[in-house]
Amino acid sequence: MVELTRLNGSKLTVNAHLIETIEEVPDTVITLTTGKKIFVKESRQKVKNLVVLYRKRILNQTIDDDESSDT
Asked: Binning pLDDT at 50, 70 and 90, where does residue 16 land?
């Protein structure tokens, strides 16, 4: 999950696995796999970076869990 900011300043949390596309036209528009569109203040690159960090955290947690179960 990534925390983003709507254009009106309210915060929302988006399931990163549901993001299909991210566009800047000029506002950043996130299209989910459900077809829903979300307009956010963050740049396309910032959203992309947040998704990458989120997925790295998941991967690291999975690796840590696997290593602890081996002991």
From this structure: very high
